[in-house]
């Protein structure tokens, strides 16, 4: 049976172990350094203390006087012992120039030879050394006692290494106590910090975090939908390639406030909203976007997650489907009208009124053919011609007369490839639909259409006899959602404005001579002569 491998320690745990080891190493290093430094300082302090004591004794007149006496020990032993206690040294030994001790902390050593070097002191020099004596190793200073320039005695004052070590042990105990307290305090602080880090990293280790980051990057760039993350200050914290393309942003978008991206006001408002948005349609200059937003809240507002889906193609296909549906309805209406007229003609013939039947049929044929001939002769672009014929049938069924003005003229082949038929259907189809809807139910309901290609410009103008647009609403009429027909409407004019902008054209609103509104779209015709020449050469 294979035992499961232990799970690697989390990133927070690894950092905690590293920090504790590092802190322990630093504290131990500081403690050792402090110990070595303190020991050196202690020995230097002992040397200075012994030197000061020896020099003070050597300069004492009582010592000089005792050295002249017949029994120096009797006078100097009590003096040396008293001085030893007050000066804080281990011993004060006063001796003859030949090294015979006159004083010693151990009386049995009086009269014996001093253990140490005295040659330099005999020559009149004060010096310090570390030497092994009766009391053990000690730091000592030997100083000469002068009497009228002659060395009459020697003084040795010292502190044993054992006494220095005892002092050091007390200091080291306090030092390691402080080091332990510092280590414990640092460890506790490190634990608190790493506990917070563990919560933020969800207990994952470095490998798991690296793998998660790789998956995150791969997913971020793989999805075609747009993803934008805003921080608490409404600045872009993260954006994927899809969102850059959908919003038309450059590589410097990260860190910029959402309000300064140059996006349409409704879309900017959705990004900055503190409330979630679900499947809202928003338009940019070139795209129709489905926007979803959700605030990131964790005790405080931390940001917003925004997803974007491109609905441009779907919206265009939906528009084409609506046009096809309109054509179908137009054909149905024409078939219905044709059937009614045919029944009328048949009934007149059955009643024996042949001349009236012929006159009725001829009048209806001339009326229908006149409209068809007018549209076909004026508009050579087949898509626009078919669209106008279908819209005319729809308008007629709703009791609205659709009229193509006398000035209309678009020859076949005038419109460039850069102006797709889909955009023409979007522009003219929506304008006519809105005009027919506005004119419906009004006296002398009428819609006029002007389609003219001249001087490098395509003019599409639609006017109606409806109630028109109030002056205070004209600034908002092209915004998404504006409509006088209730909620769920108002996308058509926004799509028209988008298509016109995409073609580098202009869309204006004015009053119509019929009494309603009149929309005018002007689109530049940018025919590429080089492309035409290439096509002719290829032919």
From TrEMBL:
Spans traversing the lipid bilayer:
15-37, 172-193
Annotated Histidine kinase domain ranges read 305-527
The record's PROSITE patterns line, in alphabetical order, gives:
HIS_KIN, PROKAR_LIPOPROTEIN
Q: Which GO terms describe its cellular component?
A: plasma membrane
**Any one GO molecular-function label of the UniProt entry:** phosphorelay sensor kinase activity
InterPro entries the record matches: HATPase_C_sf, HATPase_dom, His_kinase_dom, PAS-like_dom_sf, sCache_3, Sensor-like_sf, Sig_transdc_His_kin-like_C, Sig_transdc_His_kin_SpoOB
Q: What is its EC number?
A: 2.7.13.3
The organism's place on the tree of life at top rank:
Bacteria
What Pfam families is this protein classified in? Answer: HATPase_c, sCache_3_2
Its subcellular locations are: Cell membrane
What membrane topology does the UniProt entry give? Multi-pass membrane protein
Keyword Electron transport in annotation: no
The enzyme's first-digit EC class, named in words, is: transferase
Which reaction equations make up its catalytic activity? ATP + protein L-histidine = ADP + protein N-phospho-L-histidine
Q: What's the name of the protein?
A: histidine kinase
Q: Which organism is it from?
A: Streptomyces showdoensis
């Amino acid at each position: 049976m294979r035992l499961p491998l232990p799970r690697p320690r989390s990133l927070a745990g690894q950092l905690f172990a590293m920090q504790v080891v590092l802190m322990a190493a630093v504290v131990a290093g500081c403690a050792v350094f402090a110990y070595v430094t303190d020991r050196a300082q202690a020995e230097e302090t002992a040397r200075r203390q012994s030197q000061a004591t020896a020099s003070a004794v050597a300069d004492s007149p009582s010592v000089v006087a005792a050295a002249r006496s017949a029994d120096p020990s009797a006078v100097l032993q009590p003096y040396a012992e008293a001085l030893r206690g007050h000066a804080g040294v281990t011993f004060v030994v006063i001796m003859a120039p030949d090294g015979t001790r006159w004083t010693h902390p151990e009386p049995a050593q009086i009269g014996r030879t001093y253990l140490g070097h005295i040659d330099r002191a005999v020559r009149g020099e004060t010096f310090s050394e570390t030497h092994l004596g009766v009391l053990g190793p000690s730091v000592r200073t030997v100083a000469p006692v002068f009497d009228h320039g002659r060395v009459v005695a020697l003084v040795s004052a010292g502190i044993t290494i054992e006494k220095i070590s005892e002092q050091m042990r007390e200091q080291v105990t306090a030092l390691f106590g402080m080091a332990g307290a510092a280590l414990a305090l640092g460890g506790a602080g490190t634990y608190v910090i790493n506990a917070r880090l563990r919560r933020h990293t969800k207990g994952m280790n470095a490998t798991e975090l690296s793998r998660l980051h790789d998956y995150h990057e791969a997913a971020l760039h793989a999805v075609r939908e747009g993803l934008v993350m805003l921080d608490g200050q409404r600045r872009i914290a993260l954006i994927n390639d899809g969102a850059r393309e959908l919003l038309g942003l450059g590589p410097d978008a990260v860190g910029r406030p959402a309000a300064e991206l140059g996006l349409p006001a409704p879309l900017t408002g959705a990004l900055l909203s503190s409330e979630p948005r679900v499947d809202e349609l928003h338009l940019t200059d070139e795209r129709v976007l489905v926007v979803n937003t959700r605030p990131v809240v964790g005790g405080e507002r931390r940001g917003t997650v925004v997803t974007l889906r491109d609905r441009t193609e779907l919206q265009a296909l939906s528009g084409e489907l609506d046009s096809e549906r309109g054509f179908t309805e137009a054909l149905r209406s024409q078939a219905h009208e044709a059937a009614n007229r045919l029944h009328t003609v048949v009934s007149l013939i059955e009643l024996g009124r042949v001349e009236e039947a012929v006159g009725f049929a001829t009048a209806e044929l001339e009326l229908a053919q006149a409209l068809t001939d007018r549209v076909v002769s004026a508009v050579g672009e087949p898509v626009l011609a078919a669209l106008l014929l279908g819209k005319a049938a729809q308008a007629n069924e709703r009791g609205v007369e659709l009229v193509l003005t006398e000035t209309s003229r678009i020859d076949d082949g005038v419109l460039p490839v850069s102006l797709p038929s889909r955009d023409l259907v979007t522009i003219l189809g929506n304008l006519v639909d809105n005009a027919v809807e506005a004119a419906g139910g009004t006296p002398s309901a009428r819609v006029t259409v002007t389609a003219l290609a001249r001087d490098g410009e395509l003019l599409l103008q639609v006017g109606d006899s409806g109630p028109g647009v109030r002056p205070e609403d004209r600034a908002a009429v092209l915004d998404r959602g504006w409509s006088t027909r209730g909620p769920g409407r108002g996308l058509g004019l926004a799509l028209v404005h988008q298509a016109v902008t995409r073609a580098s054209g202009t869309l204006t609103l004015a009053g119509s001579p019929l009494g309603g509104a009149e929309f005018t779209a002007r689109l530049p015709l940018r025919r590429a002569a080089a492309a035409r020449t290439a096509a002719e050469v290829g032919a």
